[in-house]
Design a protein that fits this description.
By secondary structure, the chain is an all-alpha fold. Helices cover 70% and strands 0% of the residues. It has two domains: 96 residues, Rna Polymerase Sigma Factor, Chain: A, CATH 1.10.1740; 75 residues, Winged helix-like DNA-binding domain superfamily/Winged helix DNA-binding domain (Arc Repressor Mutant, subunit A). The longest helix has 25 residues. It is globular, with a radius of gyration of 18 Å.
Length: 194
Amino acid sequence: MLPVMARESDDKTLMVRYRQGEVAAFETLYARHKGPLYRYFLRQGQDLESAAELMQEVWMKIIGAKDRYEPTAKFTTYLYRLAHHCLIDRSRRSANKMAQKTAGQEIDPADLPATNAADPQAGAMRDEAAEKFRSALANLPDVQREAFILRQEVGLSLAEIALVTGVNAHTAKSRLRYAFARLRKQLVRDRDAT
């Protein structure tokens, strides 16, 4: 695996090479970022089908804008800014709230800590903890959930989160702080209730 700085530079280089007509560069970017982008939409409360549609919409926008791409920010910042706008556009078109769509989504096993498959009690505990976390995450206000996901799952900095979501760094920091506090409070309350 490449160090983060090498990957960031490599992503920009790949996008520039794609802009110059190298399709294989796009395929590499797509393979590298499709999973995290898909999970971003799932964690934002989208159902499996909507997440797949939004992911394709983002990649189509990247394809459509390739000739205008300028490597001024990290590629992931560019990617998730597009994702953020697609999500906003979708929610404006939708009559349902995103938080109501989270029920019944599957958890990606790769996101969960490893356990001994032969130990059914450990598996049940892991499943219960994952469900409680997913529920707590779904109950966050949309802006806090997005800040949390962009930080914890995508690995963006506060400045990058601010850029993606169109707010100042102080607001991004507050949203992230409130998200952590609410998640901690909800998870402690759930633990104490059992």
